[in-house]
Fold each of these.
Amino acid sequence: MKIKIIGSGCPSCRMLYQMVVNLKNEGKIEADVEYSKDINKLIELGVMRIPALLIDGKVVSVGLPMNDEELLNTIKNE
């Protein structure tokens, strides 16, 4: 699984990235995790809010980050 967070580098974007990394480090998910500040990619995807959470190239969440449980459920359901 490939998880990508796209954002501007704002605190919410960095927090979502760190939450995903923590889930990986805790062994709750197995994934390659990447953070990108490529705003052009957001435009290409039609995303107008940040952070954007992509799993295997599919946008699964935009905007305010979720709590740990919601994030884990979102990732596992993809």
Note: The mean pLDDT is 93.
Amino acid sequence: MASRKPGSERARRIRPDGRRSLLVYLRPEVIRELKKAALDYDRTAYEITEEAVAAWLAARKTGQKDKGG
């Protein structure tokens, strides 16, 4: 049996809702504002992030342009 790196099992774990992890790097001020917004709207940072990415991808499919695309 091949040896695995410590933590590799954890990286493959999938949540019951099907979500998987993705590491992204953001500027500290963006993270700070995201966390504040999450508290203000009683949501999680990952919910807001997922919604924003999904909206960006949907706009990309329809050919809409924005500052990021």
Note: Residues 25-69 form one domain.
